[in-house]
Amino acid sequence: MSDVELVNKKPLLSSVWFVPLTAIAIGLWMVIQSALSEGPTIEVTFSTAEGLKAGETRVKRLSVDLGVVEEVFLNDGFNDVTAIVRLDGETQELLREDTQFWVVRPRIGSSGISGLSTLLSGAYIELSPGTGATGRRTFQGLEDVPVTPQSTPGIHIDLKSERVGSISIGSPVLYNGYRVGKVEAKTLSAEDGQARYQIFVNAPYNDLITDSTRFWNASGISVDAGVDGLSVHTDSLETLLSGGISFGLPQGASPGAPVQDSREFQLYDKESDIYENPHTHGRNYLLLFDSSIRGLEVGAPVDYRGARFGTVVSVSMGLLQAGQGWTSEGHAQMPVLIRIEPGRLGDDSNRGVIENDQLLEIAVANGLRASLATGNIITGRLYVDLDYYEADTEVKIKTLSDWQVFPTTTGGIAQIERQVGDLLKKMEAMPVEDAVVEATAALKNISKVMKSADSALDDVNFILDDPATKSLPKNLNTTLIDLGKTLRGMDPDSDLYRDLEATMIELRRMLRQTDILFKRLDAKPNSMVFSSDQDNDLIPTVKP
Amino acid sequence: MTFPKGTAASRGLRSCSICSTLMTPRQAKLSSRCRVCGASVSLRKPYSIQKTMAFLITSCVLYIPANFLPIMETTQLGRTLQSTIIQGVVQLWELGSYGVALVIFVASVVVPILKMISITWLSWMVVRKKPISHAKANQIYNLTEFVGKWSMVDVFVVALLVALIQFDNIMSIHPGPAALSFAGVVLFTMLSAQAFDVRLLWDKEQLQESDLTDLEAKN
Prior knowledge:
The complex is a heterodimer.
Chain A: H1 18-36, E1 38-46, E2 58-61, E3 64-74, E4 81-88, E5 100-104, E6 107-109, E7 112-114, H2 118-121, E8 124-128, E9 138-140, E10 154-161, E11 172-175, E12 178-188, E13 195-202, E14 214-217, E15 221-226, E16 229-234, H3 237-242, E17 245-248, E18 263-268, E19 283-289, E20 301-304, E21 307-314, E22 334-340, H4 350-365, E23 368-376, E24 381-388, E25 398-400, E26 403-406, H5 413-429, H6 432-465, H7 467-489, H8 495-523
Parallel strand pairs in A: 1-9, 2-8, 10-18, 11-17, 14-18, 19-26, 20-24
Antiparallel strand pairs in A: 1-4, 2-3, 3-4, 5-8, 6-7, 10-13, 11-12, 12-13, 14-17, 15-16, 19-22, 20-21, 21-22, 23-24, 25-26
Chain B: E1 14-15, E2 22-23, H1 25-30, H2 48-68, E3 72-76, E4 79-83, H3 85-95, H4 98-127, H5 134-148, H6 153-164, E5 166-167, E6 171-175, H7 177-195, H8 199-203, H9 209-218
Antiparallel strand pairs in B: 1-2, 3-4, 3-6, 5-6
Helix pairs in contact in B: 2-4, 2-7, 3-4, 4-5, 4-7
C-alpha cells in the first residue's frame, strides 16, 4: 500500500496573533477616545483651598458633574490658591468671559446659611456660565456665593447712602409693598464714607425704574409726630426685621427715561425725604450779596415770586477765589450758590434746563433779580427770592471763574428800611402846616354849628313844655272817639245804610229798564213812534 | 526537529492529549486524528511558543488599563471615591487592614507580573539555541503552575466587596472598568500557560555540568 504522506504545509504565523493585535487595537482606541473626550483645562484662583482636594473635588452646575480638580497649589505670591480643573467633553460653551466659579461649602454669613449638604458629600465648585465671549481659561473664583444667579433677567442698581441703616445682604427691594428684588452687596466706601449698596431688581419690574425713580430706606418703623398727630408706619414684617429698600416716583413727578444697568441713585433715609430733592436736572448759579446772609441755611428754598424754584446748595467763602467778591465801591460780597430746578415749575429734563436758561436771560433783562427775604420772622430764617424790579437791559448773567453769577439786589429787611426811608421822605415832603391850619378852621366851624344846634334843641324843649302841647294828645283822643261813632253809623245794620241800599236797588232797576228801552231803540229806532209788529202767539188747534 | 535520545518523540510516537491513546508514525501518516476519540494529535502542541507569546502580550496589554482605570467605586456618606488597584491597597494599608492589603497586593501585582516574567523566560529558554538546565526549568514551570491558581483572587475580592457592601449612600461599592480588564489579564495568562508545551523544555539539550565549569573557567 502506498503511503500517502499527509504533508500539511503549516503557515509560519499562527492565527492566534489576532488576539494580541485586537487587544492592542482596543487599548489604543480607548486611549484615543478618552483623550478626545477630555475637555478644556482651566485655572481658577481662590483665596483659600478649604474643601478642595486634588483629584477628588468635582465641578458641577445644577448638580451635573462637569469636571474635577486636578491640582491645587499656592500662587507665586503665596497669597492665593490656584486650582487646575479639568472639565469633561463639550464644556467649552460654558467658559465665557463672565463665567463665575465659587466653592460650595457650609457657610454661615450675612447672606444666610447655605451649603450644609456639603458637610456629608464634600465641597464642590459650582460653575455659573455667563453671557460673554467664549475662550477664557483663567478665572478668579468668588469667595461668596453670588446672591443672584447670573442669567436671571433684571437690572442692577447702585445706591449711595450716608447712613448704613439696617439693610443687609438679601434684604428685599419693594415696590408698593411687593418684593421685586433684593440687596446683593453692601460696601463702605473709604473715599467718602458713604455706604454703597448694589441691588438687583428682577424682570419685568426693572421697567419701573426710570430717571425720576427715588429709592428710600424702608426698614423698621418710622414714627412721625406732626400737626395731624402721631403716625406710625412700617412696610412689612420682613423689612421690620431685616430691613429693606423701597422705590417709587415722588407724587406729581413724571416718569423719566429708562435707566441702564449699574446706574447710581441716592438712597434716602425715609420716604418723606424723597420730596426734598425730587428733581435731577438743574443749573447752579452764584449769587453775591452785599449784606449779611445770617439766617440763610443750606437747603433753604429759592422762590420765584412765591413758587418754589430751587434750593440753596452752598454758603461758603470757598466758592470765591482770592481777589473775587468785591464790589466796585469796595464792599465785600458774600457768595451763595443756588441750584435752579426747572422741574419744579415745568419740565424736569435736560431740555427743560436749557429752555429755562434762555428764559432766565430774558427775565434778567426785564428786571429779574435775586434777593434775600425773611421766611420766618420768629427764627429769622432767610430764603432767596427771585422777583422783578426795574428792568435794565445792561444787567446780565455774568461768568466768574466756573460760576454763572445771577444779578442780585437788596431785599428783606434792607427793603423795609428803604421803604420806611421813602415813606419818611414822603412825609417830609407833605404840606403838613397848611393842613393843620385848615383843620383848626374846620374845627372852629364845627363848634359854631354845634352851638346853633344847641339853641335849636332849647327851642324844641320849650315847645314841648307848653301845656297846649300836652293837651294835644287828649284832644286827639276825643276826636278819635267821635270818628269811631260816625263810622259805627255807617254800619250795615244802621238805617242810613239800609236806605242807601234800597236806593241803590231802585236805581239799578231803573237802569235795567232804560237798558231795555235803549236796546229796542237800537234795534228799531222808530219804535217810539210806530208800534212794533207783535207776533200773535200761536194758538194750538185741534185737527178735526 | 531532532528529539533527544530515548524519548518517545525520537521514535515518532505520539499520544492523544485527550484519551492518551498511542499513535504510531505509520498511523500518523494515514491520519492526524486519534483512532479512538477523533481528536487532533500532534507530536508537540502546534504554534506553542507563538500562542504562548501572543496570549502573554495580550495580557500585558490588558494589564495597563487594569492598573490605571479604577477597579472599584466607593460611595461613603454621599462622597464617591474611585480607586485603582494600587490606591486600594494603599487605602487598606492606611486603614489598618494590613493582611487584606498584603493579600490584594500579592494577588494583583506580584502574581500576574511573576507569571508574565516566568512564562516569558520559559519561552525564551525554548527558543534560544543553547542548552538549558532541565531542573531549573522545571522548577520555574511548577512555580508558574502553582501561582496561576491564585490569579483570580483579586477579582474575587472585588466581587465579594461589591456583593456585601451595598448600603446605598451610607456605604456602597461598585465595580469599576478595571475589574473587567484584570479578569482579562488573568484569563490570558491562564491561556498562555496552557498553550505552553512543557515538553519543549524537555526537548532541549540538557545543560551539562562541564559546560558550566567551562563557562566559569572562561570568565
